[in-house]
């Protein structure tokens, strides 16, 4: 079958797998905050109705100001996108026809976007101990326009260390190769960020998304941070009114709601660690994620397809890893969801163990 390239929209997956979709399913393939969207959006939603009849602010001035303040950068260093996915498209356009390096496994849109603009793509696979192969990367980066690296990483949920990220930036600082650090899941880990370094490293671009933590994937809002001259070059590709008026309203409200982020991070950490104890006890392998999703595998299987299909039949939808270079079906990705939902996954995994 042709496996869908992304999580979410499980109907496509069931159709492709030729399995009748059960009446009730739990979707672990989409990695958004199970406790969102924040109540503040629900409370104000109806009052925003009037904004849909006019064009949104093409510059998203107010939200840009808020992002700049939160990230402690200048407003000129922020470029808004209709989701981080659109910002990645801008980068593809910026480096049209150039060579780009992707540290794999990673989010698939870097490659999709760069291919669409005729880039030459090279991979660097991370080491087995989850460190960056620095020397190989530095050699490949020579003559490349950019390196894409995702931390905390999608799909493993693990984060590269601060020391490694600084070493990477230092090594490439004297080259013309940009370093794109995708921090779409930064809020869930709340740990080290390179955002404060855009002034120091003029080749650094940081990607962020609001769709994950705030569970507004359907509304769409993401942005990048980069030094002013790079940000200006990238902003040329931004279509007028690219961020819709409701997304701007919602973002203004939720970015002021830091309590929601802290509370969600705590709850998700608790649920994740609980799940890890279970997986350890039951003999499954898993990635030491610091965010709201993780990789898991039954070590008895080289390809996890039988487990994946077993769970699909039971209405438990995980994310396959066939299109992640370096993983190729050896793992499955699962989101951390609410306690009740995680219990459903635990139950199904126990049934799998019993019958296999
Ligand atoms: C690592 C990573 N970056 C960026 C994105 C795109 O996020 P957005 O919903 O803001 O377009 C995703 C979406 O899954 C992602 O996993």
Automatic annotation (TrEMBL):
Biological process annotations from GO: cobalamin biosynthetic process; L-histidine biosynthetic process
Domain Aminotransferase class I/classII large: 25-348
Keyword flag Transferase: yes
GO-annotated molecular function: histidinol-phosphate transaminase activity; pyridoxal phosphate binding; threonine-phosphate decarboxylase activity
Lineage top rank: taxon: Bacteria
Pfam families in alphabetical order: Aminotran_1_2
Alphabetical UniProt keywords: Amino-acid biosynthesis, Aminotransferase, Cobalamin biosynthesis, Histidine biosynthesis, Pyridoxal phosphate, Transferase
Cited InterPro entries: Aminotransferase_I/II_large (IPR004839), CobD (IPR005860), HistidinolP_aminotransfase (IPR050106), NHTrfase_class1_PyrdxlP-BS (IPR004838), PyrdxlP-dep_Trfase (IPR015424), PyrdxlP-dep_Trfase_major (IPR015421), PyrdxlP-dep_Trfase_small (IPR015422)
Gene3D superfamilies noted in UniProt: Aspartate Aminotransferase, domain 1, Type I PLP-dependent aspartate aminotransferase-like (Major domain)
Pathway stated in the Swiss-Prot or TrEMBL entry: Cofactor biosynthesis; adenosylcobalamin biosynthesis; Amino-acid biosynthesis; L-histidine biosynthesis; L-histidine from 5-phospho-alpha-D-ribose 1-diphosphate: step 7/9
EC code: 2.6.1.9, 4.1.1.81
Recorded catalytic activity of this chain's protein: O-phospho-L-threonine + H(+) = (R)-1-aminopropan-2-yl phosphate + CO2; L-histidinol phosphate + 2-oxoglutarate = 3-(imidazol-4-yl)-2-oxopropyl phosphate + L-glutamate
Record function comment: Decarboxylates L-threonine-O-3-phosphate to yield (R)-1-amino-2-propanol O-2-phosphate, the precursor for the linkage between the nucleotide loop and the corrin ring in cobalamin.
Family affiliation: Belongs to the class-II pyridoxal-phosphate-dependent aminotransferase family. Histidinol-phosphate aminotransferase subfamily.
Protein name (record): L-threonine-O-3-phosphate decarboxylase
Species: Pseudobacillus wudalianchiensis
């Amino acid at each position: 079958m042709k496996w869908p390239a992304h999580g979410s929209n499980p109907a496509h997956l069931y159709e492709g797998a030729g399995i009748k979709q059960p009446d009730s399913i739990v979707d672990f393939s989409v990695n958004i905050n199970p406790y969102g969207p924040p109540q503040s959006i629900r409370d104000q939603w109806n009052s925003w109705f009037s904004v849909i009849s006019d064009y949104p602010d093409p510059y998203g001035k107010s939200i840009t100001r808020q992002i700049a303040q939160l990230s402690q950068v200048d407003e000129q260093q922020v470029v808004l996108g209709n989701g981080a996915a659109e910002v990645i498209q801008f980068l593809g356009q910026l480096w049209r026809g150039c060579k780009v390096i992707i540290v794999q496994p990673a989010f698939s849109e870097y490659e999709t976007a760069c291919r669409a603009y005729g880039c030459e793509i090279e991979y660097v696979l991370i080491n087995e101990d989850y460190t960056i192969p620095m020397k190989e990367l530095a050699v490949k980066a020579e003559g490349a326009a950019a390196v894409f690296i995702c931390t905390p990483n999608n799909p493993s949920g693990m984060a590269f260390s601060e020391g490694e990220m600084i070493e990477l930036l230092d090594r490439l600082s004297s080259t013309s190769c940009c370093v794109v650090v995708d921090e779409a899941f930064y809020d869930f880990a709340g740990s080290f960020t390179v955002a404060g370094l855009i002034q120091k490293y003029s080749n650094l671009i940081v990607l962020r998304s609001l769709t994950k933590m705030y569970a507004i994937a359907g509304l769409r809002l993401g942005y990048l941070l980069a030094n002013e001259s790079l940000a200006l070059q990238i902003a040329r590709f931004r279509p007028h009114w690219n961020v819709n008026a409701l997304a701007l309203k919602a973002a203004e409200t939720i970015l002021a709601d830091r309590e929601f982020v802290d509370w969600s991070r705590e709850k998700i950490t608790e649920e994740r660690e609980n799940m890890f104890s279970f997986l350890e006890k039951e003999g499954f392998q898993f990635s030491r994620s610091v965010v709201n999703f993780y990789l898991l595998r039954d070590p008895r299987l080289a390809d996890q397809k039988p487990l994946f299909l077993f769970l699909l039949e039971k209405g438990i939808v995980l994310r396959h890893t066939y299109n992640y270079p370096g993983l190729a079906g050896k793992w499955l990705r699962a989101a951390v969801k609410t306690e009740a939902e995680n219990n459903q996954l635990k139950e199904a995994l126990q049934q799998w163990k019993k019958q296999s």
